Amino acid sequence: MTTVSVPAGWPATEEEARAVQDELRARVLLEPGPPVGAGHVTGVDVAYDDERDVVAAAAVVLDAASLEVVAEATAVGRISFPYVPGLLAFREIPTVLAALDALPYEPGLVVCDGYGLAHPRRFGLASHLGVLTGLPTIGVAKNPFVFTHADPDAPRGSASPLLAGDEEVGRALRTRADVKPVFVSVGHRVTLDDACAHTLALTPRFRLPETTRRADSLCRRALQEATIRH
DNA sequence: GCGACAG
DNA sequence: ATCTTGTCGC
């Protein structure tokens, strides 16, 4: 497991962070991403111990066809930013980057626990991570955040637009029949249709993608191990 | 101005 | 995110 410190020049105030978002936003690419079910799909997630100022990140690479784990990596560090809705990326990204760097394989599509385009400034965690790494990224969130949506039909695969006013910024996607939908948005180098198709391919059994389930449990374990002593 | 608000 | 046991169900 690798150890990270807060990057030099990392934004220290909300104003600085928003300025960074506004600058990087122009670099997002809207283009066809990797094919569904081919190559690698990587889940990233982060767990915190605010009390001890520790953050642990995990990156788990799956074979996109079988969903078997191919590789895992973790990283721990100091918390680099407080939680502020709309600025989540500044809290998660340094440690996530370190975990991704520690992987022995190319990540392929990266699936984030949170939003991409569906963001107050249209530059969420998935967009930010995509621009910094150049990798294709999507965001799959558990809550609608500040957006509105109609309830999708009951069958798995049903979807309804996730709206900011009348702008479709993502999709509420039912990954299990009769279960609360997940909220999918584009990060970098992927279309919304493909982001949803990938999400469905990653949810053969549970509401949340296998990628985020695996990354979530791994980063919690990493946090425990980093925190159990001291 | 106040509250809500991904994780 | 995090605080948290047993319990219902596939």
From TrEMBL:
Per the entry, which co-factors are needed?
Answer: Mg(2+)
For this UniProt record, the keywords arranged alphabetically read as follows: Cytoplasm, DNA damage, DNA repair, Endonuclease, Hydrolase, Magnesium, Metal-binding, Nuclease
Transit peptide recorded as keyword:
no
Residues the entry annotates as binding Mg(2+): 45, 113
Superkingdom in the source lineage? Bacteria
The keyword Nucleotidyltransferase belongs to this UniProt entry's keyword annotation: no
Catalytic activity as recorded in UniProt: Endonucleolytic cleavage at apurinic or apyrimidinic sites to products with a 5'-phosphate
Q: Which family does it belong to?
A: Belongs to the endonuclease V family.
Recorded E.C. number(s)? 3.1.21.7
Residue spans making up a coiled coil are none
Stored PANTHER family:
ENDONUCLEASE V
The protein's location, in the record's own words, is:
Cytoplasm
Q: Which Gene3D superfamilies match?
A: archaeoglobus fulgidus dsm 4304 superfamily
* Residue numbers marked as site, Interaction with target DNA: 83
- UniProt-listed InterPro entries: Endonuclease-V
Q: Give a short account of what the protein does.
A: DNA repair enzyme involved in the repair of deaminated bases. Selectively cleaves double-stranded DNA at the second phosphodiester bond 3' to a deoxyinosine leaving behind the intact lesion on the nicked DNA.
Gene Ontology MF annotations: deoxyribonuclease V activity
This one is known as Endonuclease V
